[in-house]
């Protein structure tokens, strides 16, 4: 198989030379001057066929419909965002003022949670008066190292903390808290009595 025809550098095409038409000197001069001066010139035709002429008119009905739809959708989105923001601000307000939310009692508690809470605040429960007051007194004793001279200072700190809790709550604390308060004060008095103060 020979590939010389493909890789050869010889011209594989023939040349064609047109025989020039005899022109007069005036035609040659006229042709040369027109070509050099103007180049290609577009001449607009005054005649247009019906297939090339198209008239564009705005569809005002469709435009008005699209504008109305866009405005309705924008209003719907704005309403959705405003509703979401309102709900978040309410939740944020409740989260930051949880004590007021709890104090008002405007919430529902499922039966299992209610039962557990009742156990926790019962007389022998972890958040009951006895256990809570014992923890507070044990903490005060641990802080002072059992120093009887610090009993009055710890008692004053406890009273100050209780007042802050009432301020945070927004009023008088529930009955169980007041009972715990009384039990803690009695415990401090007993500690002072035992220390001979």
Would you mind describing this structure in some detail?
It is a single chain. The protein contains 8 helices and no strands. With 197 residues, the protein is mainly α. Helix 3 (60-96) crosses helix 4 and helix 6 packs across helix 8. It is rod-shaped and about 125 Å long. 4% of the residues are buried. The mean pLDDT is 74.
Provide the gyration radius in Å.
50 Å
Helices and strands, in N-to-C order?
HHHHHHHH
Helix content: 55-70%
| Quantity of strands, as a count | 0
Overall, the morphology is rod-shaped
Share of residues in strands: under 5%
Structural class category = mainly alpha
Number of helices: 8
Summed over residues and divided by their number, the pLDDT gives a mean of 74
Topology at a glance:
Blueprint: H1 4-7, H2 25-38, H3 60-96, H4 98-104, H5 111-120, H6 129-144, H7 151-169, H8 175-194
Could you list some keywords that capture this structure?
197 residues; mainly alpha; rod-shaped
Question: What's this model, at a glance?
Answer:
The chain is mainly alpha-helical and 197 residues long. It has helices spanning 4-7, 25-38, 60-96, 98-104, 111-120, 129-144, 151-169, 175-194.
């Amino acid at each position: 198989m020979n590939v010389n025809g493909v890789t050869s550098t010889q011209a594989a095409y023939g040349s064609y030379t047109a025989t020039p038409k005899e022109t007069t000197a005036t035609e040659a001069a006229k042709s040369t001057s027109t070509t050099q001066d103007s180049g290609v010139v577009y001449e607009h035709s005054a005649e247009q066929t019906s297939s090339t002429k198209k008239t564009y008119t705005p569809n005002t009905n469709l435009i008005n419909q699209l504008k109305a739809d866009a405005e309705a959708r924008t209003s719907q989105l704005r309403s959705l965002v405003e509703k979401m923001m309102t709900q978040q601000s309410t939740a944020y307000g409740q989260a930051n003022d949880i004590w007021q939310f709890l104090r008002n009692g405007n919430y529902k508690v499922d039966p299992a949670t209610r039962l557990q809470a009742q156990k926790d605040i019962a007389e022998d429960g972890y958040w009951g008066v006895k256990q809570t007051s014992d923890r507070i007194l044990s903490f005060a004793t641990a802080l002072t190292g059992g120093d009887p001279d610090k009993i009055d200072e710890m008692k004053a700190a406890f009273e100050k903390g209780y007042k802050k809790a009432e301020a945070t709550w927004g009023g008088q604390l529930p009955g169980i808290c007041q009972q715990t308060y009384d039990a803690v004060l009695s415990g401090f008095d007993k500690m002072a009595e035992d220390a001979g103060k």
